[in-house]
């Protein structure tokens, strides 16, 4: 067989193997999908195809409920395929799986590693990295807040704030940082966060963040009153945190605003994202505004 025909034949076989494996994966026959993807790894694949097959094995194990096997496969993939297109998605899946297993410290570390990961911004998958950073950080930070791990949530929100200096991204994150600081009884730090919102927004904030600026000003006024009353009386507790919805940019595009999962609201079940799908910000439950607090209209 001529060399050109041999190459064409091997390429056809690889394509067919991928299609068969993908079909089994999409129909829920995860065991067979894993078998076919593992077979692909035995072939002479290009690095990008080998990384894709390895990721699909880990993803299929996750969908099959093989949590510990998926955990091992995801860790191995992240370590051995650092520049693969699927690497940030694998980190998201690993972080959410660890959270599901109750291994919250490990989940926090995986998420922080993703948020702090330095990658070349001009590479073709730079936007995918940023999208998965935003989705993973936002989802896990709100989960930590919901389970009253305010220090973990604070660490994640601080890392999220460094991803983008744009007002429509940074200011909503600063507001959530302020809420975390309040929960940790760090009133001075909370006031600093709310003050930075007012400083950055200026006299004419962008329409999409006007509600955030207004709510931050209200929180700052309440904290100022509390601080003065505490000095006078020494017995008052901090003002109640508002259950009003908090807004953050819609991941991954950050076009417009979407409600973030409500701090203190019902915990959401973490479902693995479809492999290769564009990450999107999770929806927030609606809640009434606290008495006396400014309410944010749903977008």
Summary keywords:
299 residues, mainly alpha, two-stranded antiparallel sheet
What string gives the helices and strands in order? Answer: HHHHHHHHHHHEE
Helix content: 55-70%
User: Total strand count, please?
Assistant: 2
Side by side, the strands of the main sheet go: 1-2
First-last Cα distance: 63 Å
Oligomer classification: single chain
Strand content range: under 5%
- Largest sheet data: 2 strands, antiparallel
pLDDT < 50 stretches: 243-274, 280-299
Q: Radius of gyration in whole Å, from Cα?
A: 23 Å
Shape: elongated
Helical/strand content category: mainly alpha
> What is the tally of helical segments?
11
Mean pLDDT value = 79
Task: Describe the secondary structure blueprint for this structure.
Blueprint: H1 3-26, H2 30-40, H3 47-63, H4 67-80, H5 87-100, H6 104-115, H7 126-146, H8 150-161, H9 167-183, H10 187-201, H11 210-233, E1 247-249, E2 257-259
Antiparallel strand pairs: 1-2
Helix pairs in contact: 1-2, 2-3, 3-4, 4-5, 5-6, 5-7, 6-7, 6-8, 7-8, 8-9, 9-10, 9-11, 10-11
Describe this protein's structure.
Helices cover 61% and strands 2% of the residues. With 299 residues, it is mainly alpha-helical. It has a domain at 171-299. Strands 1-2 form a two-stranded antiparallel ribbon.
Short structural description:
The protein has 299 residues and is an all-alpha fold. The chain has helices at residues 3-26, 30-40, 47-63, 67-80, 87-100, 104-115, 126-146, 150-161, 167-183, 187-201, 210-233, and strands spanning 247-249, 257-259.
């Amino acid at each position: 067989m001529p060399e050109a025909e041999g190459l064409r034949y091997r390429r056809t076989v690889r394509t067919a193997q991928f299609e068969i494996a993908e079909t089994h994966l999409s129909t829920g026959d995860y065991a067979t999908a894993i078998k076919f993807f593992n077979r692909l790894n035995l072939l002479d694949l290009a690095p990008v195809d080998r990384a894709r097959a390895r990721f699909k094995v880990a993803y299929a194990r996750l969908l099959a409920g093989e949590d510990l096997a998926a955990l091992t496969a995801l860790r191995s993939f992240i370590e051995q395929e650092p520049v693969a297109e699927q690497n940030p998605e694998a980190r998201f899946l690993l972080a959410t799986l660890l959270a599901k297993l109750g291994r919250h410290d490990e989940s926090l570390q995986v998420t922080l590693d993703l948020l702090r990961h330095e990658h070349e911004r001009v590479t073709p998958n730079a936007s995918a990295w940023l999208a998965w950073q935003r989705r993973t950080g936002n989802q896990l930070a709100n989960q930590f807040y919901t389970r009253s791990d305010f220090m973990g949530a604070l660490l994640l929100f601080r890392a999220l704030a460094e991803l983008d200096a744009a007002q429509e991204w940074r200011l909503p994150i600063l507001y959530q940082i302020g809420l975390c600081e309040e929960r940790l009884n760090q009133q001075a730090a909370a006031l600093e966060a709310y003050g930075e919102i007012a400083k950055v927004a200026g006299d004419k904030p962008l329409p999409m963040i006007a509600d955030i600026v207004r709510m931050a000003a209200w929180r700052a006024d309440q904290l100022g009153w509390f601080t003065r009353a505490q000095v006078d009386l020494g017995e008052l507790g901090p003002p109640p945190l508002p259950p009003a919805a908090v807004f953050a940019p819609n991941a991954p595009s950050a076009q417009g605003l979407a409600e973030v999962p409500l701090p203190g609201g019902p915990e959401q079940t973490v479902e693995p994202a479809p492999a290769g799908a564009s990450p999107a910000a999770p929806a927030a439950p609606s809640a009434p505004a606290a008495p006396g607090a400014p309410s944010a209209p749903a977008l």
